[in-house]
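Table S2 (continued). Query chain:
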Amino acid sequence: MIHIKSEREISLMRQAGRILESTRQMLETHIRPGISTGELDRLAEAHIIAQDGIPSFKGYHGFPGSICASVNETVVHGIPSDARILKEGDIVTLDFGVNYKGYHADSATTYPVGTISDALQALLDVTKQALEVGLQMVQPGRHVSDISHAIESYVKPYGYGIVEDFTGHGIGRDLHEEPYVPNFGPPGQGPILKPGMTFCVEPMVNMGTKHVKVLKDNWTTVTTDRKPSAHFEHMIVVTEHGYEILTAFEKE
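Corresponding output:
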C-alpha cells in the first residue's frame, strides 16, 4: 500500500531532510585522502544526534553503521571501517538516513577523493544527471515507470551498466515503503503518481557490467567485474504541479 502523506507528515520529513542535508554538507568538508570511512561514520552520527535526529541506518536489519560508505567498486551498503582509508583518486558514496520524530529522510551522493580520472568524473556526471532526468518526469498523473524509463534512456547511450538488483523506494514512517522505483523499464507502468506520495529516486550506475554481488558480510555489494559504481539519490514529495526535493537545501 502506498501511503499518501499529510501536510504534518511532510513537514516532519522536510525537517528530517534538513538534518540530513546539514550532515551531508558537514561531511563534504572532511572527504579527503587519508580519512577513514569509520571516522566519517562517527562524524555523521554525532552531527545527526546533535540536531535531534536519529541515524536511520544504524541497527537497520543489523547494519552496524550510521552511514553506508561505498568506495570504488562497492555499489551500495559499504560498512564504515577505520581500516578503510580513502586514497587520492578514489570515489566514495555516502548514503544515509535520518529519523526525525518517527519519519525518515534518505539520500546518497558519490564524491571524488582528491583528483579523479576523467573517466570517473564522467561516470559521476552521468549518474547525477540521470537523477535529474528522472526527477523531471515526476508529475501527478504520470506513472512510476515513466521515471524509470527516463533514467534508462539517458544512461544507456553511454554504455554503462544500470543496476537492477536495487531500486528507489517509498519512504515515510518506514525507511522502505511502496512504491519501488526501478532505474530501468518501459514507460506507462506501475502506480500513478499522486500529490502527497513520498519516495526516493536513486540511479546506481556502473562503469562496466550491471551485475552485482553481495559479499560474505551480507551487506557490501560490489560490481562483479570490480569496475567503479556511482549512486545519487534524493527524497521527494509529489506536489500538485510537480515535486519538491526534501533532501536538498541551500547552505545556511
